[in-house]
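With this grant's support, we have settled on a layout for protein records. One resulting record is reproduced below.
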Amino acid sequence: MAEIRPFKALRFDTEKAGSIEELVCPPYDIISEEQRQAYLQKNENNIIRLELPKGEHPYEEAGETLRNFKEKGILRNDVSDAVYIYEEEFTVGGVTRSFKGCIVRVKIAEFSKGVVLPHEETLSKAKEDRFNLMKATNCNFSQIYSLFNDEKHTVTAILDRCSKGQPLNELSDGEGVTHRLWAVTDPVEIETICKEFADKKLYIADGHHRYETALNYRNYCRENGIGNGAEDYVMMMLVDMEHPGLLVLPTHRIVRNLADFDAEAAMKKCAEYFDIEPFSGTDTIESVLEEKYKVGEKSFAFYAGGDSYQLLTLKEKTVISTLLHDKSESYCGLDVTVLHTLVLERIFGIDAENMAKQINLTYVKRFEDALNAVESGQAQCAFLLNPTRVSEIRDVAAAGEKMPQKSTYFYPKLITGLVMNEIV
């Protein structure tokens, strides 16, 4: 199964580069150009110069910047091989949570081998961008986020034991999330951790583009007779999928620019498949959905303006498997599958291509943003969802299937810049 290894991470020397708070950034794909400029204005050594390069020749410039950082000692390789322990602590809904995982090198395997499993589709443009960056820099600047099954939670217990001392880095990112990093260099502890993964599969939570890019880069190296074996591995953050601090948030859908949109007519059509309950006061949506979530109902809220909404609850759960007879029970049981198949496609006429191109559909993470889009007239209606369960992600991936677009939102995102993996 999963083969993992320690490595000598490339890390910032804060004495030369500046404070670690000024050197890290969120994942590249959620950063606007305005935010990118702000990071560089705060500190020109910010990892964003490497992870999200811009300019006429961005990839070549990233490669040159990396060489320059190393020559000046801004970035240095650790002396000893290590397994890195990474913790995020955060507060959501007044509840403080935290989770820990280990950052390691993972041996790359095709999805067909069943060792590393995806759960969502990827876009070719993003993979081309990441591939060009890897060719120019031979480095992973951010870690892929993956989950694993560990019924006895042995790995987490080991990581807790090995992270009792002072962390190498500790910082707050300004968004209410505290990040901590430790390095395990004891060969005995490292061997113990690595052996724990010998019987485990890994389920990608976030970073599908980067994993497929790593596969392409490995194949590129083999075809061109370059590399020394390091290209067979990619940097990952591995977390117990039953860790109590793990949090998946929902991604809501807003519908816009549909011709002849009629909310009342749509609800009449939905009545064929759903029990529909009217509610007053949008401030109750989240609590009402949570109650349905707890008892396993397939429910979501429909909002078309004002101070009221409709709660849609699926009447007969077998209807999806009848329509999608080639899909697994796990896939058919997803809330997003129910919404996409019965409502967005059959009633609103928004097909899979339309969804992928976001012609009439937009995905938003914040509950308030979904409501505001409708109230401001930017959208015709919104569907508010419950989060996908981690067990559902595992089961769909294990069935060799991929979820509808934007089915999961793991919170918080892993920060970029604490550790880097040179492919040398």
Remarks:
- The chain is about 35% helix and 25% strand.
- Residues 116 and 313 are 34 Å apart (CA to CA).
- Residues 251-386 form a domain with the Conserved hypothetical protein from pyrococcus furiosus pfu- 392566-001, domain 2 fold (CATH 3.30.1760).
- The chain has two domains: 4-247+411-422, 251-386.
